[in-house]
Amino acid sequence: MRLILLGPPGAGKGTQAARLVEKYGIPQLSTGDMLRAAVKAGSPVGLQAKAVMDAGGLVSDEIVVGIISDRIAEADAKNGFILDGFPRTVAQAQALDELLARKHMELDAIIELKVDENALMSRIENRARETVAAGGTVRADDNPEAFKVRLDAYRVQTAPVSAYYASKGTLKVVDGMAAIDAVTKAIDAILG
Ligand code: ADP
Predict the structure, then answer these.
(1) Whose CA is nearest to atom 5 of ligand 1?
(2) CA-closest candidate to residue 100, choices 88, 112, 89, 87
(3) Which CATH number fits domain 2-26+79-191: 3.40.50.300, 1.10.579.10, 3.60.70.12, 3.30.930.10?
(4) What is the mean pLDDT of the segment spanning 66-81?
(5) pLDDT at 27
(6) 129 CA distance to ligand 1 middle (Å)
(7) Which positions are catalytic?
(8) Residues near 182 by beta carbon (within 8 Å), at least 6 away in sequence
(9) CA of 132 to the centre of ligand 1 (A)
(10) What is the per-residue pLDDT across 82-126, written as a single tens digit (0 to 9) for each?
């Protein structure tokens, strides 16, 4: 099972991906998580990505395509994977198409979580509050300024990715404003 989850920051991709990991036994490949790990490790990629991530902008297509290309070649992704946060630009989607074609792999589903933009800021504020309450560290980009930049990046650069898949007839849309379990059910129904 090879899946893409699309949707704006705060749409619930991570929550649903975690459930899909359980159900299908395939890894969640989150470019955001991988980039944060690179930043933490102080690797060359991390050093390059940190400032742009903290500000809410997008890391270069070249970097993230490289990361994904290496990651899907790993053993645990052999039977499939869930892409979360990638592709985030049409150029990334095209690079992914080429990458998969070279490996003779196909995507099983591309699912967009559709959410009302007004709800997103409060979801992010909640996430930050819950993280603090649990004794964790809030993400450097989970603040109102960076979040606004992330939403703008989504509107300008990532919303066209949905249009790209819609034009190919492969996009499925789920109501991301529904309760978490209802969203899971809707995704299950798509995946059969
Ligand atoms: P979100 O909560 O917005 O979905 P992510 O954890 O997916 O956030 O990503 C955090 C940051 O990592 C993004 O704002 C961006 O700077 C960088 N990033 C993640 N995935 C990509 C990508 N595919 N292309 C470019 N930048 C990315």
Answers:
(1) 32
(2) 87
(3) 3.40.50.300
(4) 95
(5) 98
(6) 20
(7) 13, 88, 127, 139, 150
(8) 175
(9) 21
(10) 999 999 999 999 999 999 999 999 999 999 999 998 888 888 888
